[in-house]
């Protein structure tokens, strides 16, 4: 589904991603871990099409298409979904209007009929249950005045509405209490199928107790320096990142 | 280059001015001669070089004669959903045969009201263009709402303007609203043709105590029109006046809006949007004068500027020594969509009383790129995403329009503009 080869990206001339390789197949869950500042959000943003990042080398194909050629909105319509680490507050844009516009533009791109108001509301009600989000939140402006947890929940709710084939969850767990974490993870797990794939970006192992990954990758200084299975995450929880840093940094100086 | 002077530029207007209101006109003429057309660096016109603009092509202005307007033109000009009373004007001249008669409202030509205290609200000494209008206007309209009357449907002042370069259209409006009355005005003009005439409008509103007056104006003139308007109202005890001014087009537009809070528990509200592209220049100068205790004023102007357009905002708030317990709020926010667009914004507060609540703020920024990316990342097309964000920005002002059909009309005009050009 997703194939990343030797991806390099920089911001304002500073290289951040320095040769990422990653293959993600339908049905898989990949976790990307790594210390703060290692480039996890950068990778997620580059995949979603954020323009500040300049891709200087490498390629990304998604369902056979060159992803890097597509505008952010077309990536979303093709089925890429980024749950933001920091969801943006947008005063004056109602959550419901926003979602309806988004859903219908995505449907149009996929050759589906637009949803009328009634069908849209029915779909919304159904998906709201999934993440136990309150109707009242959705009658407000998008993310405006939402608590951290409400914002994260709203991201997963939007994911449920847009039915992506590749979901990238950027630190969706951070700041959540256990109840919220359970609800959010439960939502993600219910949306999982053998048709879609999930990339979970996190620096805590905790989330991976709830969303169990098939593969775990460690990102450090813009490269994937270690890959393994969920046991790697447990090892990281126990030992921290220092041993990996040391391994990488000493290898670099030799 | 010579500076414009009253002698050459507008001399034909003075010669051709009607003979009524003799002393009123004479005083205004003297006032105009004393003030002259604002010089390039004149403080009040610092960012809006109207003299240069007027001088650019024209040596000697003349008054535009009315053009013929048909009932079909009026019908097709009415916006969708409009229900109310229409007063039709052609180049400033009132056309009673095309206008509604409004139950219990007195409507007359200003020329039929020789006793009218013209210029006692919008005083000619305050602005040269008020003086010019008052000295040389052809005729105008007098509208009087009797006391304790609620005019349920809005009164639309619908102006058809068509003139050549070098011609002046000078609408003059006098509105009276008796104590405890309530009325909503909609003000809209239709420019026929593309020429660069000069529109110089003066509106005076005399409200009684405990009145509720709303004046919503849509400025969507031809893109070559030069326009100055002076609007002033006295707000008495327990009365509330609200102005919403939406500027969408024109070459150079200058609005002077003045609210005088004269009675306690009075409230004055000034809201505006300027949504500009091309080389359009819109200057909103607003004044609110708190002269008495316990009055409130609210002001919010928002600008969205594309291309090489320019917006000027100047908001004066006076709080006089007696005006204790004043609440005065002012905000001006701008979004620049191009590097060549310019905004000059200046709050000007003069506060002589000590027990007051005043706040003001102004911002000039770009479209929020984070928000734009967020919307795109959800599958929303970039142009539409921009439109959504800009509309959200403007919406805060649009929602101040309490007349539903007019609100919807302005929303549709603005959405159309935001969905395409910007
Ligand atoms: N917009 C930006 N401008 C400058 N530097 C940035 C920007 N975004 C990220 N960086 C830098 O790139 C590196 C990786 O950041 P990020 O991808 O956010 O890491 P992570 O998500 O793994 O914590 C950090 O050193 C950070 O300072
Ligand atoms: Mg991050």
TrEMBL record, chain A:
It holds the Pfam family ABC_tran. Signal peptide: none annotated. The keyword Nucleotide-binding applies. Residues 2-246 form the ABC transporter domain. One of its GO terms (cellular component) is cytoplasm. It comes from the Bacteria. Keywords: ATP-binding, Nucleotide-binding. Coiled coil: none annotated. PROSITE patterns: ABC_TRANSPORTER_2. One of its GO terms (molecular function) is ATP binding. SUPFAM superfamilies: P-loop containing nucleoside triphosphate hydrolases. NCBIfam families: PRK09580.1, sufC. PANTHER family: ABC TRANSPORTER I FAMILY MEMBER 6, CHLOROPLASTIC (PTHR43204). Belongs to the ABC transporter superfamily. Ycf16 family. This is Fe-S cluster assembly ATPase SufC. It comes from Algoriphagus lacus. The gene is sufC.
TrEMBL record, chain B:
Pfam families: SUFBD_core, SufBD_N. It comes from the Bacteria. Residues 162-393 form the SUF system FeS cluster assembly SufBD core domain. One of its GO terms (biological process) is iron-sulfur cluster assembly. InterPro entries: Fe-S_cluster_assembly_SufBD, SUF_FeS_clus_asmbl_SufBD_core, SUF_FeS_clus_asmbl_SufBD_sf, SUF_FeS_clus_asmbl_SufD, SufBD_N. Residues 15-155 form the SUF system FeS cluster assembly SufBD N-terminal domain. Belongs to the iron-sulfur cluster assembly SufBD family. This is Fe-S cluster assembly protein SufD. It comes from Algoriphagus lacus. The gene is sufD.
């Amino acid at each position: 589904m997703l194939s990343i080869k030797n991806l390099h990206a920089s911001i304002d001339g500073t290289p951040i991603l320095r040769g990422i390789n990653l293959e993600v197949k339908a049905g898989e869950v990949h976790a990307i871990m790594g210390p703060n500042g290692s480039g996890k959000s950068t990778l997620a943003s580059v995949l979603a099409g954020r323009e500040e990042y300049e891709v200087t080398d490498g390629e990304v194909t998604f369902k056979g298409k060159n992803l890097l050629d597509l505008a952010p909105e077309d990536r979303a319509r093709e089925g890429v979904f980024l749950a933001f680490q920091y969801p943006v507050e947008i005063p004056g844009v109602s959550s419901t209007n926003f979602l309806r516009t988004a859903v219908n533009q995505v449907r149009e791109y996929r050759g589906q009929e637009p949803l009328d108001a009634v069908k849209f509301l029915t779909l919304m009600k159904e998906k709201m249950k999934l993440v136990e989000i309150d109707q009242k939140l959705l009658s407000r402006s998008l993310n405006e005045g939402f608590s951290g947890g409400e914002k994260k929940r709203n991201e997963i709710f939007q994911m449920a509405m847009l039915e992506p084939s590749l979901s990238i969850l950027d630190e969706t767990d951070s700041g959540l209490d256990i109840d919220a974490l359970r609800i959010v993870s439960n939502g993600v797990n219910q949306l999982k199928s053998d048709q879609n794939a999930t990339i979970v970006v996190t620096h805590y192992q905790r989330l991976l107790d709830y969303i169990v990954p098939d593969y775990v990758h460690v990102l450090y200084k813009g490269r994937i320096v270690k890959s393994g299975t969920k046991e790697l995450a447990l090892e990281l929880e126990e030992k921290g990142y220092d041993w990996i840093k040391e391994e990488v940094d000493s290898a670099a100086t030799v | 280059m010579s500076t414009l002077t009253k002698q050459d530029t507008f001399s034909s207007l003075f010669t051709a001015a009607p003979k009524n209101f003799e002393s009123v006109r004479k005083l205004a003429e003297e006032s105009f001669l004393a003030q002259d057309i604002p010089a390039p660096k004149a403080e009040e016109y610092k960012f809006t070089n109207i003299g240069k603009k007027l001088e650019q092509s024209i040596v000697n202005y003349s008054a535009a004669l009315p053009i013929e307007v048909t009932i079909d033109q009026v019908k097709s000009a009415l916006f969708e959903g409009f229900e109310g009373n229409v007063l039709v004007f052609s180049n400033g001249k009132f056309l009673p045969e095309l206008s509604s008669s409004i139950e219990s409202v007195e409507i007359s030509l200003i020329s039929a009201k020789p006793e009218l205290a013209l210029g006692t609200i919008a005083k000619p000494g305050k602005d040269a263009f008020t003086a010019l209008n008052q000295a040389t206007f052809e005729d105008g309209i007098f509208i009087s709402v009797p006391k304790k009357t609620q005019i349920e449907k809005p009164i639309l002042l619908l102006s058809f303007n068509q003139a050549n370069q070098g011609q002046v259209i000078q609408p003059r409006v006098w509105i009276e609203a008796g104590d405890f009355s309530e009325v909503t005005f909609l003000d809209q003009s239709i420019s026929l043709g593309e020429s660069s005439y000069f529109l110089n409008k003066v509106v005076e509103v005399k409200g009684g105590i405990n009145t509720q007056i709303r004046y919503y104006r849509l400025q969507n003139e031809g893109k070559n029109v030069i326009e100055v308007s002076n609007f002033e109202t006295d707000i008495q005890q327990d009365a509330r006046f609200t102005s919403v001014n939406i500027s969408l087009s024109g070459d150079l537009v200058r609005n002077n809006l003045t609210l005088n809070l004269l009675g306690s528990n009075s409230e004055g509200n000034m809201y505006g949007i300027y949504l500009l592209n091309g080389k359009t220049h819109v200057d909103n100068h607003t004044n609110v004068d708190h002269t008495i205790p316990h009055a409130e004023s609210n002001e919010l102007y928002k600008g969205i500027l594309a291309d090489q357009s320019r917006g000027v905002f100047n908001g004066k708030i006076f709080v006089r020594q007696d005006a204790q317990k004043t609440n005065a709020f002012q905000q001006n926010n701008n979004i620049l969509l191009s590097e060549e667009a310019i905004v000059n914004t200046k709050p000007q507060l003069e506060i002589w009383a000590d027990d007051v609540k005043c706040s003001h703020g102004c911002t000039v920024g770009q479209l929020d790129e984070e928000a734009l990316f967020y919307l795109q990342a959800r599958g929303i097309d970039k142009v539409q995403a921009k439109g959504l964000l800009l509309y959200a920005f403007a919406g805060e002002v649009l929602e101040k329009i309490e007349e539903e059909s007019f609100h919807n009309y302005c929303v549709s005009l603005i959405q159309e503009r935001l969905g395409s050009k910007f």
